[in-house]
C-alpha cells in the first residue's frame, strides 16, 4: 500500500503484536502522567466531548426558552447566562481545541511517520492547562454564572455585570496558553519530525490545515490573553482602558477581541477543512485534485484571517474608513475558500465514491460550508450588514460555519478514525441514523433562523414579538431532532467500545500513513520508521491497476 | 557571518539540534552597549530640537528602530542565526504593524463622517433629497422640491421654495 517501502505488512514483530497504546500500561496514573500523543489526544477527545455536551445542554435550554414569545422556563437573567455559557462552552471548551487537540494530537505524528510530537511533555502540559482553564469556567458557572455573552464586551463586562466575569475570563486566558502550546508543538513537529521521504508536498492535507491553524494559534492567541487580562484589571482595579467612564475606549476592546477571535474562526474551520479533505480523498479513492492549491489556500486563509477582524464591528462606531477597508478585505477570504471548494468537487469528479458514514459527513460538510461561507459574504457587505447585524441571520450564518462545517467535520473525522483510535468498528446502520437526524435537525433549526433574521428578529433577545413565534417554535422543534441525532451518535460510538467488531488496520482503504499501522496503534506508532516513497494519496501501481 | 568563531558553523541553524552557545568577544558587547547609550543621548538631544510634531516623531522612531535592531542583531545574536529565524522575527514585527496600523484606521478617523453629516443633515422624510440620479423614477409632484442645483430654476413655480440643499 501507499507511502512506505520498508514496513512489511504492519511492520510489527512478535514482541509487540497484541500490544497497543491502550493496553501497554494500565491505571489512571499511567494516563495522567503519559506523554504519548495518542493518550493525550484521547483525553482531549473526552474533554472536548464533555464541553460539547455542556454547551449542548445550554443550547437546548436556550431554544426551549424561545419556544414561546414570553417566559417559558427561565427568567431574563437566567436566559442571558444560558446563551453566554452555551457560547463560551462551545467556543472555548469545544470547537477551538476540538479537532487540533484531539484528532490532530492523535494523528499528526502518525501521518508523518513520527513516534510522537516534538515536545511530548509540553503536550501534556497543554492538556493540564486546558483542564485548569475549564475548572475556572465551571467555577464561574457555579459561583454566579456569566451573562456577558461569550464576547465579554465592555463596558458591561468590566463595570456593570454582577456575575463571575473574572473567573470565566481567567479560565479563557489559561486555556489560551493550552492552545498556544499545542500550536507550537505542531509547528515544530511538522518542521522537524517528518519521516524520511515525507516532504512538505507529500504530507496529507489535514496536516497543512493543522499547520495553518497552528500559525494562527501562536500569533493571535496572545492578543486575546492580553485583552482579557486588561479586562480583568479594569474590572478588579478600575484601571481605565476600555470603559469610557474611566477614560477608556470600548471600541478598542472590540479591536483587541476580534483581532484574536476572527482568526479564531479559522482556528475552528481550517482543521475541519483538513478532515473533510481526508474523508473525501479516501472515500472517492482518488488523489486530491489540486493538492498544492488546497495546501496553500489553507495558509492563505490563515494570513488573510488577520486582516478582516473589523467586519464584526461595522455598527460599533468605528470609522467609516475602517469599515470600508475591512469590508473590502473580507471578500479576499472567499478566494482561498472557493479554491478549496472547487478542488474538493474536482476530487469527487470521476472518483469511485463510497457512501460510508464518514463520507456522508464529508458531503454534508461541503453542502453546509457552502451555505455558511456564502452567507458570510452577505454580512461582509457594509450596506447589507447594517440591516442584518445582530439578527438571527448572523446566528444562522455562524452556526452553519461552526456547527454545520466544523462540528460536522469533527464528527466525520471521529467516525473516519474511530476504528484506528479504538480498534473497534461501530454499527454503521445506527451511525447513519445518527447522521441523518443530525443533518436534518441542524438544517431544520438553523435554516429557519436565516428567515427569522431577514425578518428582523434580533439575537440575544429573551422576549420577542408574537409574529416571530411560529418560526421560533419551528426552530426549537428542529433542535430536539438535532439533539436526538447527537445522542444516537454518542450511543453508537460508546456501544462500539463494548460490542464493536475488531477493526482492521485499514477499514476504508486509506492511502495515508496512519492506516499502515495496527488499529489501535502500538505506543511507538511504527516499529520501524517508515520511509515515504509516494505522494500523499498516491496508491502503489499494483493497487490501482 | 563572522569567521572568528569556530562554533558559528555548527552552532546555529544547521537543523541538527546540536545547539552550541554563540560567543562574541567582550569588546563587541561593550561596543554595542556604548552605541545604545550614545543613541539614548541623541534621543534626548533631538527632543530639544524643534522639527515639528511629525519631524520629532520620525527622528525618535528612527533612533529607536536602530537601537532595537542593534539589540536584536547583536545581543540576541540574530545576525549569526539561521535566516529562517530572522524571517520569523521580522514577520512578528509586520504582524504587529498590521494590528496597530489597521486599528489606527479607526482611531485616527473615527467620527469624521458625523461631522460631514452634521453639515448636511438628512431630511428623514425625504432622505434622497437632491440625490436622485440615474434611473430612479421620481414622481412629478416630488420632483420639484427634490431637485437641487441647476435643476431648481427649471421647476417653474416651485423654484422659490427649492433652496438647494448643498450650498
UniProtKB/TrEMBL annotation, chain A:
Reaction(s) catalysed by this chain's protein: 4 Fe(II)-[cytochrome c] + O2 + 8 H(+)(in) = 4 Fe(III)-[cytochrome c] + 2 H2O + 4 H(+)(out)
Provenance organism: Polyangium mundeleinium
Family, as annotated: Belongs to the heme-copper respiratory oxidase family.
Highest taxon above the source species: Bacteria
Compartment annotation: Cell membrane; Membrane
Pathway annotation: Energy metabolism; oxidative phosphorylation
Documented EC number(s): 7.1.1.9
Enzyme class: translocase
Major localisation: membrane
Protein name in the entry: Cytochrome c oxidase subunit 1
NCBIfam families cross-referenced by the UniProt entry: CtaD_CoxA (TIGR02891)
Entry membrane topology: Multi-pass membrane protein
UniProt feature coiled coil, ranges: none
Primary role: Cytochrome c oxidase is the component of the respiratory chain that catalyzes the reduction of oxygen to water. Subunits 1-3 form the functional core of the enzyme complex. CO I is the catalytic subunit of the enzyme. Electrons originating in cytochrome c are transferred via the copper A center of subunit 2 and heme A of subunit 1 to the bimetallic center formed by heme A3 and copper B.
TM stretches of this protein: 42-62, 82-108, 128-153, 165-188, 208-233, 253-276, 288-309, 321-339, 360-384, 396-418, 430-452, 472-494
Pfam family, one: COX1
Keywords: Cell membrane, Copper, Electron transport, Heme, Iron, Membrane, Metal-binding, Respiratory chain, Translocase, Transmembrane, Transmembrane helix, Transport
Sequence ranges assigned to domain Cytochrome oxidase subunit I profile in this UniProt record: 23-533
TrEMBL record, chain B:
Location(s), subcellular: Cell membrane
A Pfam family per the record: COX4_pro
Transmembrane regions: 28-49, 56-78, 84-102
InterPro entries referenced in this protein's UniProt entry, alphabetically: Caa3_sub_IV (IPR011743), Cyt_c_oxidase_su4_prok (IPR005171)
Keywords: Cell membrane, Membrane, Transmembrane, Transmembrane helix
Highest taxon of the lineage: Bacteria
Signal peptide: none
Keyword S-adenosyl-L-methionine: no
Record's bilayer topology term: Multi-pass membrane protein
Main localization, broad class: membrane
Name this protein carries in UniProt: Cytochrome C oxidase subunit IV family protein
Organism: Polyangium mundeleinium
Amino acid at each position: 500500500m501507499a507511502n512506505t517501502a520498508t514496513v512489511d505488512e504492519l511492520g510489527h514483530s512478535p514482541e509487540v503484536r497484541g500490544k497497543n497504546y491502550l493496553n501497554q500500561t494500565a491505571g489512571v496514573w499511567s494516563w495522567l502522567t503519559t506523554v504519548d500523543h495518542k493518550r493525550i489526544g484521547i483525553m482531549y477527545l473526552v474533554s472536548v466531548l464533555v464541553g460539547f455536551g455542556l454547551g449542548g445542554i445550554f443550547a437546548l435550554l436556550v431554544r426551549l426558552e424561545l419556544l414561546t414569545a414570553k417566559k417559558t422556563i427561565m427568567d431574563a437573567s437566567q436566559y442571558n447566562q444560558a446563551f453566554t455559557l452555551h457560547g463560551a462552552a462551545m467556543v472555548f471548551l469545544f470547537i477551538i481545541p476540538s479537532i487540533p487537540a484531539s484528532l490532530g494530537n492523535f494523528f499528526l505524528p502518525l501521518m508523518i511517520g513520527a513516534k510522537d510530537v516534538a515536545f511530548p511533555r509540553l503536550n501534556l502540559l497543554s492538556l493540564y492547562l486546558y483542564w485548569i482553564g475549564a475548572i475556572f469556567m465551571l467555577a464561574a458557572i457555579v459561583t454566579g454564572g456569566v451573562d456577558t455573552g461569550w464576547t465579554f464586551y465592555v463596558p458591561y463586562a468590566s463595570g456593570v455585570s454582577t456575575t463571575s466575569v473574572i473567573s470565566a475570563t481567567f479560565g479563557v486566558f489559561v486555556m489560551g496558553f493550552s492552545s498556544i502550546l499545542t500550536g507550537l508543538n505542531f509547528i515544530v513537529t511538522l518542521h522537524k519530525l517528518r519521516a524520511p521521504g515525507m516532504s512538505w508536498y507529500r504530507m496529507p492535507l489535514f496536516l497543512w490545515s493543522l499547520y495553518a491553524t497552528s500559525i494562527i494559534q501562536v500569533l493571535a492567541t496572545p492578543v486575546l490573553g492580553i485583552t482579557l487580562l486588561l479586562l480583568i484589571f479594569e474590572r478588579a482595579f478600575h484601571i481605565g482602558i476600555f470603559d469610557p467612564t474611566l477614560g477608556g475606549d470600548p471600541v478598542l476592546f472590540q479591536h483587541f477581541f476580534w483581532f484574536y477571535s476572527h482568526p479564531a474562526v479559522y482556528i475552528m474551520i481550517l482543521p475541519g477543512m483538513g478532515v473533510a479533505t481526508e474523508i473525501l480523498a479516501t472515500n472517492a479513492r482518488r488523489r486530491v485534485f489540486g493538492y498544492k492549491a488546497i495546501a496553500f489556500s489553507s495558509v492563505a486563509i490563515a494570513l488573510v484571517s488577520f486582516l478582516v477582524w473589523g467586519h464584526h464591528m461595522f455598527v460599533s462606531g468605528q470609522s467609516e474608513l475602517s469599515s470600508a477597508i475591512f469590508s473590502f478585505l473580507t471578500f479576499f477570504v472567499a478566494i482561498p475558500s472557493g479554491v478549496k471548494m472547487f478542488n474538493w468537487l474536482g476530487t469527487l469528479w470521476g472518483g469511485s465514491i463510497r457512501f460510508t458514514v464518514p463520507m456522508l459527513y464529508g458531503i454534508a460538510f461541503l453542502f453546509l460550508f457552502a451555505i455558511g461561507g456564502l452567507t458570510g459574504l452577505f454580512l461582509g457587505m457594509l450596506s447589507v450588514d447594517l440591516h442584518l447585524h445582530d439578527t438571527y441571520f448572523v446566528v444562522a450564518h455562524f452556526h452553519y460555519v461552526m456547527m454545520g462545517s466544523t462540528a460536522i467535520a469533527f464528527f466525520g473525522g471521529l467516525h473516519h478514525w474511530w476504528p484506528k483510535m479504538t480498534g473497534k468498528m461501530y454499527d454503521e446502520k445506527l451511525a447513519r441514523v445518527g447522521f441523518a437526524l443530525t443533518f436534518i435537525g441542524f438544517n431544520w433549526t438553523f435554516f429557519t433562523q436565516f428567515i427569522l433574521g431577514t425578518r428582523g428578529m434580533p439575537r440575544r433577545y429573551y422576549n420577542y414579538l408574537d409574529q416571530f413565534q411560529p418560526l421560533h417554535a419551528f426552530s426549537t422543534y428542529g433542535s430536539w431532532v438535532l439533539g436526538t441525532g447527537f445522542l444516537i451518535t454518542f450511543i453508537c460510538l460508546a456501544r462500539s467500545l463494548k460490542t464493536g467488531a475488531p477493526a482492521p488496520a485499514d477499514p476504508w482503504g486509506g492511502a495515508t500513513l496512519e492506516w499502515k499501522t495496527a488499529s489501535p496503534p502500538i505506543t511507538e506508532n511504527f516499529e520501524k520508521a517508515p520511509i515515504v516513497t509516494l505522494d500523499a494519496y498516491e496508491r502503489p501501481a499494483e493497487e490501482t491497476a | 557571518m563572522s569567521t572568528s568563531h569556530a562554533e558559528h558553523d555548527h552552532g546555529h541553524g544547521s537543523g541538527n539540534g546540536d545547539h552550541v552557545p554563540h560567543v562574541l568577544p567582550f569588546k563587541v558587547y561593550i561596543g554595542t552597549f556604548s552605541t545604545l547609550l550614545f543613541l539614548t543621548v541623541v534621543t534626548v538631544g533631538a527632543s530639544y530640537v524643534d522639527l515639528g510634531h511629525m519631524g520629532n516623531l520620525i527622528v525618535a522612531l528612527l533612533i529607536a528602530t536602530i537601537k532595537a535592531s542593534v539589540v536584536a542583531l547583536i545581543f540576541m545574536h540574530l545576525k549569526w542565526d539561521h535566516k529562517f529565524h530572522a524571517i520569523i522575527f521580522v514577520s512578528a514585527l509586520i504582524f504587529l504593524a498590521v494590528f496597530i496600523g489597521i486599528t489606527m484606521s479607526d482611531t485616527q478617523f473615527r467620527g469624521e463622517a458625523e461631522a460631514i453629516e452634521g453639515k448636511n443633515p438628512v431630511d428623514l422624510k425625504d432622505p434622497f433629497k437632491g440625490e436622485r440620479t440615474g434611473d430612479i423614477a421620481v414622481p412629478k409632484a416630488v420632483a420639484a422640491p427634490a431637485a437641487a442645483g441647476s435643476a431648481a430654476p427649471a421647476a417653474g413655480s416651485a423654484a422659490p421654495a427649492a433652496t438647494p440643499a448643498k450650498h
